[in-house]
Amino acid sequence: LSAAKAANASVKFSYRPVALFVGGTSGIGRATVEAFARYTKGDAHIIIIGQNEAAATEVLSSLYKSPSSTYEFLPCNATLMSNVSAACKSLTSNSTSSSAGSRPLTKLNFLFMTPGILSTRGFTPTSEGIDRKLSLNFYTRFKFAMELAPLLEAAADAGEDARVISVLAPGTGRKIDAQDLGLKKSYTLIRAASMASTANDLMVQEFSERHPKLSFTHIHPGFVLTSFGDASIFMRMIKPLLRLLLTSPQDCAEFMLRALFDPAAAKGAFHRNNHAELMDPSKLPISPEDQKLVYDHLV
């Protein structure tokens, strides 16, 4: 942890970074937004995408600020791909909205994604027919990365960082079922978790080949104490114990930024554990054939 903090504190930018956080209103996402603003000393353009405007306003108002800070919130129910497309388009359009910040964006340096829900329900389709958990854990992330790739490419062409991070669970899934990629025939919670993990592993590999100037990382956050489950009386009772056993969002954020800022990860595909250490991709349940299957399924 101390090494990660030292590395993050040493980062200097020759440009004003633009960073987009999908799911940055609580937990790991929020802690990473806060740390990013602190390490850049507020000299950054930060955009949070999420559903909870009140929470986003609270986060943005708490960030380290400087005269050059631009902080904004873009509301989006990211379970729907149509909403993701609309959000991406609004980032590159000449919006007259009072919340439009300094849009249209001409570049994007960092895309950091942590959207998700905690649910024990079975297959729960959105109006687009995608399971809600799979939607947030994978489909949404793929859609944001694909649609924002031109902005990331623009940053890379300018000689700046152009990096994507998806926070989930690299290496914990099994080989995908090519006949049931959406799990509409064989859904279980375990299969959903496995599919999302492997699909993210496949995503970073495939995107890194299609966009060789960009960096794509799938990273494990570890076991982190977040607000998930706070509505449960039982969870509130055992939270003091969990604080002793689990990583705080703030400590987790240091490892997330260590991966995001790593000078050795300027381009390519990377899979990392909860300490931002590299994992061996040859040991993951992925293949070029499965990469193409998943890509074609989602395009």
TrEMBL record:
Give one Pfam family. adh_short
Per UniProt, which keywords does this protein have?
Oxidoreductase
InterPro entries for the chain: NAD(P)-bd_dom_sf, SDR_fam, Sec_Metab_Biosynth_Oxidored
GO terms for MF: oxidoreductase activity
User: By its UniProt entry, which Gene3D superfamilies does this protein fall under?
Assistant: NAD(P)-binding Rossmann-like Domain
Q: Which residues cross the membrane?
A: none
Q: What is this protein called?
A: NAD(P)-binding protein
- Taxonomic path: Eukaryota, Fungi, Dikarya, Basidiomycota, Agaricomycotina
